[in-house]
From TrEMBL:
<dbReference type="GO" id="GO:0015891">
    <property type="term" value="P:siderophore transport"/>
</dbReference>
<dbReference type="InterPro" id="IPR000531">
    <property type="entry name" value="Beta-barrel_TonB"/>
</dbReference>
<keyword id="KW-0812">Transmembrane</keyword>
<dbReference type="GO" id="GO:0009279">
    <property type="term" value="C:cell outer membrane"/>
</dbReference>
<keyword id="KW-1134">Transmembrane beta strand</keyword>
<feature type="signal peptide">
    <location>
        <begin position="1"/>
        <end position="29"/>
    </location>
</feature>
<dbReference type="InterPro" id="IPR010105">
    <property type="entry name" value="TonB_sidphr_rcpt"/>
</dbReference>
<feature type="domain" description="TonB-dependent receptor plug">
    <location>
        <begin position="72"/>
        <end position="171"/>
    </location>
</feature>
<dbReference type="Pfam" id="PF07715">
    <property type="entry name" value="Plug"/>
</dbReference>
<dbReference type="GO" id="GO:0015344">
    <property type="term" value="F:siderophore uptake transmembrane transporter activity"/>
</dbReference>
<dbReference type="GO" id="GO:0038023">
    <property type="term" value="F:signaling receptor activity"/>
</dbReference>
<dbReference type="InterPro" id="IPR012910">
    <property type="entry name" value="Plug_dom"/>
</dbReference>
<comment type="similarity">
    <text>Belongs to the TonB-dependent receptor family.</text>
</comment>
<keyword id="KW-0732">Signal</keyword>
<feature type="domain" description="TonB-dependent receptor-like beta-barrel">
    <location>
        <begin position="270"/>
        <end position="552"/>
    </location>
</feature>
<keyword id="KW-0408">Iron</keyword>
<keyword id="KW-0406">Ion transport</keyword>
Amino acid sequence: MSLNPEPRFRRKTLITAMMCATLPGLAAAQGSEPKALEALDVTASRGQVASEATESYISGASTTSMKMELSHREVPQAVTVITREQMDDFAQNDINDVLEGTTGVTVESVETDRTYYTSRGFDINNFQYDGVGMPAVYDNVQGELDTAFFDRVEVVRGANGLMTGSGSPAATVNFIRKRPTADTNASVAVTGGSWDKKRIVGDVSGAVSESGAVRGRVVAGYEDKGSYLDRYNNEKQMFYGVLEADLTDATLLTLGHAVQTSDTDSPLWGALPLFYSDGSATDFARSTSTASDWSYWDNTQHNSFVELRQELAGGWRATGTVFRLENESESELFYQYGTPDRQTGEGLKAYPSQYDLDVEQWVVDAYATGPFQLADRTHELVLGASWSRSETVDESRYGRGIGNPLPPLNEWDGNYPKPAFDNGVGGSDWTDRETSTYAAARWSLTDQLTAITGLRLTWLDNKGESYGATKESSYDAVKTPYAGLIYDINDDHSVYASYTEIFTPQTEVDINRDRLDPIDGVNYELGLKSEFQNDRVNTTIALFQTEQKNVAEAEG
């Protein structure tokens, strides 16, 4: 059994319609008497579109689709922004909570501590931090990623290859970090809940120099919780520190680091049996867990970045970022397999295993954006380049006693002797490198019609092995074009259309253990976007079609 999950395959073409609405403050809008609102002073760094302190579920702009600050109706794709206000109001303390409440996204918890996210029928593997990142290894998230560090989460559904390069046509999830504020702010949030849940998060921000040219922010938290599942317990610790400095009136330097640990006792590994040996459905107590009392799954994430932003003449801005992400995972897990007898409950067998995983990613990204004049109209341009490297090392060790018979689950209390994990070893050790250049333009064709065009060129190189399969491939100057049109019907409604291509290298192999050719395809989208209640309600209706070639299919 490998920590690398077996591939799950999707249909190649999906067509659907979707409608989403965000309804902040709707009750207030229905009152007959106008009310004076308390003045609110919101401070954010240059070039940031902060959502916190606005008391709104609507974000003024997003940057994920184009690295331009574009409003909801200016993006020719379906976009959802989950603001800080929404996360706080609904106690969305981890990314599972956030994405469960996001239109068009499905959260698939494989067990207690491993999660897949899907959109439009495909696994989401494009996760970014402030617009920078690489596809997730194994297309899943292990442990719980806390939201205490984030100002908002932006989700662009559909292929986003112009800004991400290779990856899934499902969606791009962009975590926008909190930034320091000029004024001093401090808060403490304490939460208690079922199954002995305890949570505390502190957040302090403000100037650290007398002039206010240097500002800092620290977010720290702790959470401990049990579960309705027998023996399960999860403990999280998180810390985020960020410092920004105005080097000149036009130059902003930002440095930050975040670390989070998520340690779980007695996690599930695999699901409960669905059927008895006679084919009838099982019916276990809700608290039933197959985990042993010694099993655990510990995850640690380190996330560091340095960003330099320079304001240029003519409204232009240049931004350079160096980003490092490391995910470390250690686990000793207990899987129960087999089909129990309906009368005796016997028939399950033991499968103890031990896993180590270390993924280190480096990304360097630099781009410039600004306006230019052509044919007596003002347009916008983005020019950029990026380099990234991801190193993955994992090892699977299997315990003695695989196949030993186990007592019925209704008598199982987790008491099983911890074995030596020396019954076979497998693993992976590979490196992915990617270099890209990209350009995008937003053309103001008329006062009502806007076009977006773009092109990304990507060079990829993969070397190494994974569980006996060679992972060596190289692709040069892969082209990912993008085109979109937005037509403003009036002040409240816009229609749009977009087209982009898809390129996704595969890890699957054929019968000769040779790596399959990359997936390529196209993504079409048509939609209508509207704003109501003085822009406090956004809606999107989208029709899309995704076509892919070379998609792996299971055989045998």
